[in-house]
Amino acid sequence: MDNRNHNFDRNSDPVINIRGLEKSFGPNRVLRGVDLEVRQGENVAVLGRSGTGKSVLIKIIAGLLKPDKGTVMVQGKNVAELDYKELEKLRLHIGFSFQNSALYDSMTVRENLEFPLLRNGSNLKHANVDAAVEEVLDAVGLSQTINQLPSELSGGQRKRIGIARTLIMQPDIMLYDEPTAGLDPITSIEINSLIKEVQQKYNTASIIITHDLTCAKTTSDRIAILLDGVFLKSGSFDEVFDDTDQRIKSFYDYNFIDE
Length: 259
Description:
Order of helices and strands: EEEHEEHEHHHEHEHEEHH
Oligomer: single chain
Structural class: alpha/beta
CATH topology of the largest domain: Rossmann fold
Shape: globular
Strand order of the largest sheet: 6-7-8-3-9-10
Distance between the termini: 11 Å
CATH superfamily of the largest domain: P-loop containing nucleotide triphosphate hydrolases
CATH class of the largest domain: Alpha Beta
Number of strands: 10
């Protein structure tokens, strides 16, 4: 089955355009010259084992870290050159799904979802806030949890609510950091399906950081393997893994996909 989304225009200008990106922490050169393009409506999975710089990459895209060299253009803006106000404005268009869901334990699901709207000075009337909360909860299939606390939810449910909280700001770009980490296989399948549904419903441009081959295969239009600070190969799943390069084969063998 071909899971890929064919709605995005392959000839359109990229909404994320990275050229020659380098980042070091002391003597540790994490990114050594990364190039990447993502178009609106496209899902790109960045594959790599732990410590290869995957999370550093999306933190730079979101302006949470500054690059040492290279350019990161997001929606036509050079992220490293933006001042605080400009960066905050850009971030309203970027949804960041953290690995740990980053929910506030003392708030109900409703309050967690309302928080980004209130924090960012939304002028929505109370009824419209309610409608926005209900819409994103429905989108992630958890309308019944609206008055529950995060502690009452399963790990998969918390992950879904975390995604809902990013969707409530109607972002153009989604950054997923290890969306299936720590989840059982059935819940992982549900999260992978949700990522595809978000892409199709909201036409987001997404980068999915993962070391999970099943996640990469089922959620993305294109994958890129990050190894030793550079992209070793990119393309469709089959294009990337139809390769005799031992570094690619060993990554495939490291994972197990049940066809």
